[in-house]
Amino acid sequence: MLYGVIGVLGVFIAIIPFAVYRLIEMAGNHGHMAMACVAANRAAAGTGAVIAAIVIIFPFARNIRNMAVSALLAACGIAAVAVPRIFPLCGSADMACRYLTKPTLTVLGSAIITLSLALLAGHLVSRRREPDR
Prior knowledge:
- It is a single chain.
- The protein is an all-alpha fold.
- Helix content is 76%, strand content 0%.
- It has 5 helices and no strands.
- Helix 4 (66-86) packs antiparallel against helix 5 (96-129).
- The radius of gyration is 17 Å and the shape is elongated.
- The model has no long low-confidence stretch (mean pLDDT 80).
């Protein structure tokens, strides 16, 4: 169930830059000049897409360890939190990409990190309880 929640959060991260910020319209309004936040929002969308893909593919990849998938999802959550800190955002504090992108990615990425680490801890505990083969 937690994998599903993480997948939904990943989808939110992937679609928010395009649904909420409407980057295509914003970029069109500035002619040939790309806005600073476009790269950050594309990176966020890519990170969210990777998170969603991992959650979708996971049930079909039986040979992959649950702990490795949980750790990978935690790393993707860290990447989501890092995107607005690595890629430049608009210079003006009044721009929506500035005051929405960083807190949104921080909250969603932190939730993914927390849930992934909870899953990882659960897998570790259940593994210790399994009898040796």
